[in-house]
Specification:
Blueprint (H helix, E strand, L loop, with lengths): L4 E8 L2 E7 L9 H9 L7 E6 L8 E7 L4 E2 L3 H15 L3 E6 L2 E7 L5 E4 L25 E2 L7 E2 L2 E4 L3 E6 L9 H9 L9 E9 L2 E8 L3 E3 L3 H13 L6 E6 L8 E5 L5 E5 L2 E8 L6 E3 L14
Parallel strand pairs: 2-3, 4-6, 12-13, 14-16
Antiparallel strand pairs: 1-2, 1-19, 3-4, 4-5, 6-7, 7-8, 8-18, 9-10, 11-12, 13-14, 14-15, 16-17, 17-18, 19-20
Length: 305
């Protein structure tokens, strides 16, 4: 393991995140490394957030995001909160601006330790989500699982929050559904040419939702920030809730809700926790790693606690 970089195992509301410090380098974390890391129970993850030197003036870093199958992801709200916590611990700063494939993200760590991320503006146009067919109204499209006369899931709201999302509205606890069986079928449905994140959402009040997500490229996940944002926006868009909601992520072991605000300027702001677990060093080409016996802050230690 001669050519290694620092990394940290973290989580955002249970969403398993690896934050990898690639600053000062020109290479990237390879898909092969991602697959190898995900195959080890110690480093199994939902997303890798690789911190690179900034590409655009006025930004603090370029964030390259990988799913557990080695594919690229455009956005990861829970992972972004983890990056903020790591960089705040290193620098003492509280506000950051990141660039991703999905665009510019502004984020802030608050005094109580929660972190807000401006996830940008939602996209509703069918060809921008994208969908394979023209739907004038993407707040409800024709798609179902189960018998035609008694579908188990049907008529999702679809949108992009940096990546494609389908929100299926359910009238009982999302944990009661066999999402492990339905998720792969819906993620890979021909209507989604770039696949999609699949979320079950239950409206629990006019200001709260309970959700569970099958994540594109990662599978069943304990939490998904962009899915929570998409559920909140879709709920407000369809008149199910107001524009500020709390999200109880049903599958998360952390019983702290996300707060999602769809502001009047059309930006979606997500506020929630992040948690450091442990740090180590990893080869970004092969994925071989070793865990630090003692973690510390310093130098490029953005991923050390």
């Amino acid at each position: 393991m001669a050519d290694v970089v620092e990394f940290a195992r973290m989580n955002g509301l249970g969403n398993k995140i690896l934050v990898v410090d690639m600053r000062g380098r020109t290479d990237k974390v390879t898909p092969e490394a991602a697959i190898a890391l995900n195959a080890d129970p110690a480093t199994e993850f939902d997303q890798i957030m690789a911190i690179h030197d900034p590409k655009a003036q006025g930004t603090d870093a370029w964030i390259d995001i990988l799913n557990s199958d080695g594919s690229k992801a455009q956005a990861c709200g829970n992972g972004t909160r983890c990056v903020v916590q790591a960089l705040a611990a290193e620098t003492g700063r509280k506000t950051f601006t990141f660039q991703t494939v999905a665009g510019i993200l502004n984020a802030q760590e608050h005094a109580d330790g929660t972190i807000s991320v401006d996830m940008g503006k939602p996209v509703f146009a069918w060809d921008k989500i994208p969908l394979a067919e023209d739907f004038f109204d993407t707040s409800r499209i024709e798609l179902q699982i189960g018998p035609i006369d008694a579908p188990v899931l049907h008529s999702p709201s679809v949108m992009s929050m940096g990546n494609p999302h389908a929100i299926f509205w359910v009238d009982r606890d999302p944990m009661a559904f066999d999402l492990e069986r339905f998720g792969p079928l819906l993620e890979n449905h021909p209507i989604f040419p770039e696949k999609a994140n699949i979320t079950l959402a239950q409206v629990t009040s006019d200001s709260s939702l309970r959700t569970r997500t099958w994540e594109r490229g990662a599978g069943l996940t304990l939490a998904c920030g962009s899915a929570a944002c998409s559920a909140a926006v879709s709920a407000a868009r369809t008149g199910r809730t107001g524009r500020t909601v709390t999200i109880d992520v049903a599958s998360s072991p952390i019983r702290q809700p996300l707060v999602i605000e769809w502001r009047d300027d059309d930006h979606v702001v997500m506020t929630g926790p992040a948690e450091w677990e442990w740090s180590g060093k990893v080869d970004p080409v092969t994925g071989s790693f070793m865990r630090d016996e003692e973690s510390n802050i310093g130098g490029h230690g953005a991923v050390a606690k």
